[in-house]
Design a protein that fits this description.
There is one protein chain. The protein is α/β, with parallel strands linked by helices and about 180 residues long. The protein has helices spanning about 5-40, 105-120, 130-135, and strands spanning about 45, 60-65, 75, 90-95, 120-125, 145, 150-155, 160-165, 170-175, 175-180. It starts with a helix and ends with a strand.
């Protein structure tokens, strides 16, 4: 194996380790959101439908902009920026790998505020900032990371930060995961 082959092998191992970590993280945060929803006797809202067998299961209600969501039990076609639900209707809102598909920082701001409006607790997950797939995926329009120390959501592609409102305290921050309650 030449130098290029060795480099490609290292890159593949590196990316696999990140994908495994992200998948474990998705399941852990999903389970936490589901447990919280059950503890307050409210449904769990998942924004973005399950597209791969290894992803966590769907929530009690699933929202996606894709019309295929209508094939899912309790699937509702809607935009994350304007959902057809009443205030605090859900115990938790689980949003995994959705925000990076939005077009702008303003869209992310609208989505965050809408998720907080419809649920008691919100879990946002985005691709790891260290993931090659996350960086080079053509459908990812934004690079997003969370910084609870500065109470910000970073949107890298335009070099600006969205400040999370003081009424939305960040309680957990792992770089690519954010929980607001």
């Amino acid at each position: 194996m030449g130098a290029l082959g060795a480099l490609l092998t290292l890159a593949a191992l590196y990316e696999t380790s990140i994908q495994v970590k992200e998948n474990i993280e998705r399941h852990d945060y999903f389970n936490s959101a589901r447990e919280y929803s059950r503890s307050v006797n409210k449904p769990l809202l998942c924004v973005g439908m399950k597209t791969k067998f290894w992803q966590p299961p769907d929530g009690d209600v699933v929202v996606d902009i894709d019309p295929a969501v209508l094939q899912i039990r309790n699937g509702i076609q809607a935009d994350i920026r304007k959902m057809p639900f009443s205030d605090k209707q859900f115990g938790a809102c689980y949003v995994s790998h959705v925000l990076e598909h939005l077009d702008s920082m303003q869209d992310v701001d609208m989505a965050v505020r809408e998720c907080v409006r419809v649920s008691d607790k919100v879990v946002f997950l985005c691709p790891s900032p260290y993931s090659l797939f996350g960086v080079f995926a053509p459908e990812h329009k934004l690079r997003i990371w969370f910084d609870s120390g500065n109470n910000q959501v970073g949107v890298k592609t335009i070099g600006q930060h969205m400040t999370v409102d003081d009424k939305l305290p960040v309680i957990t921050d792992l770089g690519n995961a954010l929980v607001i309650e």
